[in-house]
Amino acid sequence: MTVSDSRPSRAYAPGAPSAPGVVEIDHLWSMFRVAGRENIIHQDLNLHIERGELVSLVGGSGSGKTVMLRTILGLEVPARGTVNVLGRPAAQLSDAGAAGRVGMLFQHGALFSAFSVLDNIAFPLRELKQLPESLIRDAALVKLQMVGLDAIHANKMPSDLSGGMIKRVALARALIMDPPLLLLDEPTAGLDPDSADAFCALIRSLHRELGLTVVMVTHDLDTLYELSTRVAVLADKHVIVHGAPKDVIAYPHPFIHDFFLGERGQRAMELLREYPFAV
Ligand SMILES: Nc1ncnc2c1ncn2[C@@H]1O[C@H](COP(=O)(O)OP(=O)(O)O)[C@@H](O)[C@H]1O
Ligand SMILES: [Mg+2]
Hints:
Blueprint: E1 2-3, E2 23-34, E3 37-49, E4 54-59, H1 65-72, E5 80-85, E6 88-89, E7 102-105, H2 117-128, H3 133-146, H4 163-174, E8 181-185, H5 193-210, E9 213-217, H6 221-227, E10 230-235, E11 238-243, H7 245-249, H8 254-261, H9 265-274
Parallel strand pairs: 4-9, 4-10, 7-8, 8-9
Antiparallel strand pairs: 1-11, 2-3, 2-5, 5-6, 10-11
Helix pairs in contact: 2-3, 2-4, 3-4, 8-9
């Protein structure tokens, strides 16, 4: 477990203690100027994520979780500090050669309503690479199957899909360039419990089978306990603790108490017993 004022432990890195992290955020400050006033979102935030981890990022509404994912993706520029992703500054991720190295499932990520399922999935590939049409279609079909959807859905329009299917298609699109790092912003929010469970199982199998590193924002304790190798808590404008779920729960902080042990505390403890993976 690490706390805000100490460097993240590298003990977790399997077999490669000196390998650079997939995500290395050091002394990050993020701010927005709103109506002439600086609004500080992150203040000296540190977070290192090793290859193969699945980190759940939790924090109150407006605490800066989405801004953090967008910063990892290079869409927000740090006011101060450094953000390195896959060994290079996040700002360079959109450069030729690096584009598509990070996949993102956006919080309110809609599909293009005028495009078919297949064309939605293929979109980043068409944008970035000059490839023959047959290859693009094959690649998109592989990803469609990878997210558990049959090829029969390829020519459907987004308006024909359920909420769970839309999430799966958006995930297939995020994976089209075979990114080693996947960012998920509240992936199960808005899904009914069965679809959320199924989507959770899909994320777990993709994480394991593709060897992905995953950073996932979630409010859903079931999802968190079932999937996380590590949990990072964003509060007071920085990551207050980053570690195994059982250690994070024990960390004394009002947000952690309310989030994990408040009215949902009993359920949380049951889940901890239920998922030995989390302890
Ligand atoms: N483009 C922007 N301009 C100004 N303020 C922003 C912008 N994006 C986010 N914010 C502010 O940053 C804070 C954190 O936002 P966000 O990361 O979306 O929170 P959450 O943790 O709920 O995902 C909020 O107060 C939000 O209003
Ligand atoms: Mg958000």
